């Protein structure tokens, strides 16, 4: 039996024996397979699938219900599905409660807050038009927002175009309230990721689709910058289930769940070595990052910054690679790394979560402690948080404990930070009790906190008036 493969499978087997099964026995299945199937049927994504769809997912995952369960649990763990979450977008922020309600605040010049207006919001405000719709995941980009419902539907608002010209450009089309993306209505979506020139979505079967990229030299298909039709990501991932996607400035990472274990694929622009293949060449089709096999590391969470990337392994090690400007890789220098490299300064902790921004990285430990490194601009690292201290803007080349978050006496479970070179950075931290804290740039209200006088940022984490539990 595959009990040692995943704690979830062991839990499934135990629960299977504790209570009567809710389905007739299948004598063609082993006890562990029956237990895994029982647990799969309790997962929110699996429940609405027809028997044919369930069997198709089983084949895609490798022909075993244990592998399907591992696929489902891995997706829940790295994407916080069915749980509260916070997102720090370029100039605006989003907060999703455990009940699926969505609050937004900050910059709203393109209607990216979804309230039907173009007015900035300095306090969290619920998106009223979504009443009755349960949101399980959110994504924020420059001037745009996407929300995913528990029914797999995708809602978008804000700007509908991509590219350099959009920044400061006039006459761009936008929507101020959530609109369902009709081109995705036949795809049950569980996650979205927004880059600077494209959008990617992940289906519940683990298939990746992209649109609005604008070049056939990057993702293996021809699209126009205004193309809203999803195109399947071609190449090796066509037949490999993906549990998480992460979008950087001009590239995409995919965390795949194969029978032999977890792996990471990358595609797009290779400038700075951010694709992780030991070179700086572009990749038209997804390519396996082989370095994790060399490091004997099982990737569990992946994060894509604008120009650098990071992974957390099953054993709690953290790897970073890409453009190392300002020390965002945490290796004590500003050198580029074209292949994943273990952050030695973090080997004494077990990491469970990582988040990357423009030139900044945050790591959350199993105990809920937070470490950050990289660009200190806008006080977004959370170090030396007392107002008036000049060194709170200092760049940090190796991971440092964020003592200002330690002092709130709350266990942090998720960090999100601005991932755009066009905006001053800000950071939001979510605790296991559902409390939200914010720090960094707040000039557009993206901290959810009223600033006084000439203030335009906060170096010390402050509680946002919203309960996400």
Automatic annotation (TrEMBL):
It comes from the Eukaryota. Keywords: Repeat. The keyword Repeat applies. Residues 84-417 form the RCC1-like domain. RCC repeats lie at residues 100-151, 152-205, 206-258, 262-315, 316-367, 368-433, 434-469. This is RCC1-like domain-containing protein. It comes from Aquilegia coerulea (Rocky mountain columbine).
